[in-house]
Amino acid sequence: MAAIEFKRSPRPTLGVEWEIALLDPETRDLVPRAGDVVDIVHRDHPEIHLEREFLQNTVELVTGICDTVPQAVVDLDNSLQAVVAAADELGLEVWASGSHPFSDFRTQPVSVKGSYAEIIARTQYWGSQMLIWGIHVHVGISHEDRVWPIINALSTNYPHLLALTASSPGWDGIDTGYASNRTMLYQQLPTAGLPYQFQSWQEWLDYMHDQDRSGVINHTGSMHFDIRPASKWGTIEVRISDATSNLRELSAVVALTHCLVVHYDRMIDRGEQLPTLQPWHISENKWRAARYGLEAQIIVNRDTDERWVTEELAEMVTDLAELAEELGCAAELALVQEILERGAGYHRQRRIFQKTGSWIPAVDQTCRELKEMRPLE
Fold first, then answer.
1. What's the domain count of the chain?
2. First to last CA, the chain
3. Core-most of 66, 96, 150, 279, by most CB within 10 Å?
4. β partners of residue 298
């Protein structure tokens, strides 16, 4: 295995990846036309960065290296408008959420890529079910020795980042009772889920060496932890959140993520101890946020004290407000409070399903939210 070199970032730069899907406007089912959409966008806008994803129905919007959340949002908006125009040309709808509420995974082909075929060959039934979409936030880190202390601290914020974005209550035509069924599905893959609480960069290197020798990385190309180092870019990549249906909610969680990473980085500068929780508490909090979303009561310290996640989030917005001003994302961080007052994506989808008995109106509204760049209802 080649040595893993962390490409240090001199400042806390920001990059965002947003996975969105393509739908048939008549059936509202997923359609495997991502390659056609990407080709049209590259024809008309060669400067826009899009990626083909695991499924042929998915397009990933990828920002450049940004300094602020507003800069990243403008980048994503430009890409989204180009994708919407290409989809319109093909007679398709564009849609984003944590998972699709009724599409049959057996009808959705995987993209043509060796590592994707390897994943399906290895994981079989569970790997085939990944009709799920998320948001990945990269934040630049100045030195590899800071990476795992910050990841371990961010793990204590797992339920906060997930509850804000939870948007996958439906699966196979039913209401699962979960706010984020995506979270439960994704952790079935052998290389996905919570990261281990490594205490040093060397422990991470030793772990990756073991994964290479045992053949794990040969099957997958990489580890797919919910939070992981992205050594090639010199970042920590936070992959907790469901894909939001709109840029307004996306900007809130990106701002919170950016602020939290910089906050913990500066705690290291000040010689302060970063927060941690027992691994079993981290795991329990993940489940509670996936199950209950913004209604979750979570474990907040090593003494097993509990608070409502909404109370925690409201306090975070206040505590991080000054830092958000400095980072240029005060307006976006303030949108967290708006989500707390209005509810998250799973609330809107579930209300429509309960009112109509059908997921189709919920899918239709989610499509409208993407185009109007804000939650509706």
1. 1
2. 52
3. 96
4. 307
CA angle 35, 39, 40 (to 5 degrees): 120
Q: What is the pLDDT of residue 220?
A: 54
Considering only CA atoms, give the Rg of the chain. 20
* pLDDT for res 115: 65
- Alpha-helical (H) ranges within the chain are 34-44, 69-89, 114-128, 147-154, 158-165, 181-186, 201-213, 216-220, 247-269, 279-292, 309-319, 321-327, 330-342, 345-356, 360-372
Write out pLDDT tens, residues 106-161: 887 777 665 667 777 777 887 777 789 999 999 999 999 999 999 999 999 999 99
SS (H, E, C) 142-187: CCHHHHHHHHHHHHHHHHHHHHHHCCECEECCEECCCCEHHHHHHC
- Note whether residue 338 is domain-resident: yes
The domain in which residue 144 lies consists of 14-372
Answer whether residue 7 is part of any domain. Answer: no
* Residue 143: C-alpha distances to residues 236, 258, 310 (Å): 11, 17, 33
Please check whether residue 93 is in contact with residue 25, taking contact to mean a CB–CB distance below 8 angstroms: yes
Residue 219 has pLDDT above 60, yes or no: no
Alpha-carbon distance 79 to 45, whole Å?
9
Neighbours of 179 (CB within 10 A): 31
Other C-beta atoms lying within 10 Å of the C-beta of residue 215: 10
* pLDDT tens track for 34-51: 999 999 999 999 999 999
Which residue, 366, 371, 135, is CA-closest to 243?
135
Beta bridge partners of 224: 192
Question: Which single residue is written with the structure tokens 């564009």?
Answer: 94
Residue 375 tokens, joined? 């939650």
Eight-class DSSP state of 107:
G
CATH number at residue 216: 3.30.590.20
Contacts with 134 (C-beta within 8 Å, 6 or more apart), sequence order: 19, 98, 182, 186, 239, 240, 241, 242, 243
Q: What are phi and psi of 212, to 5 degrees?
A: -70, -45
Residue 377 maps to a domain = no
Q: Mapping DSSP to helix (H, G, I), strand (E, B) and coil, where does residue 63 land?
A: coil
Domain for residue 125, yes or no? yes
CA atoms of 74 and 147, how far apart (whole Å):
28
